[in-house]
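Appendix B. One record, verbatim.
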Amino acid sequence: MPTFRTLSTDSHSPEATQSPDQQAQLEKVYAEMRQHALELRDELIAEFRPLPAEQLAPRLSPASTAEQIDAWRQAGEVFSVPYNEVNLYPTFQFDHGRPKDVVARVLKLLRDERPRDEAETPYLDWDIMCWFTAANGWLEGAAPDEGGIPMAQMDANPEAVIVAASHARDFISD
């Protein structure tokens, strides 16, 4: 099944050495993958209802501002996902008006530059959203109702989430 990861790298473009039929077939497959990714984005938006910084700030605390939220994003403490030319912030990464500490640690692991022969490419923001909201084999109970989703484990078991993130870019991973 295609994921954002398969659409995030440049290694999946048709080669010039392929026949016109092969190129056409690949273009069709890539178009289907892109469509699936767009549908997945819409599903994630509908389910998790991330908010623009201007709407999120007053929900965090009366003293919070959109500028503060953007500063947290730029510092790597939270992430946003671009949607309709607006950065949306998933609310699960905040607690008591501040970013959860575990989020910054996970983001560092998912985005860290590593030699290409040691790890897959760094995660982009939609990849990160998918990672936080999908079942993860490194966490206890891979089924969603058993809590194997990083987002659901962040408060109860942040160290396990960190371990799962440390393996996310392994060549053999969850």
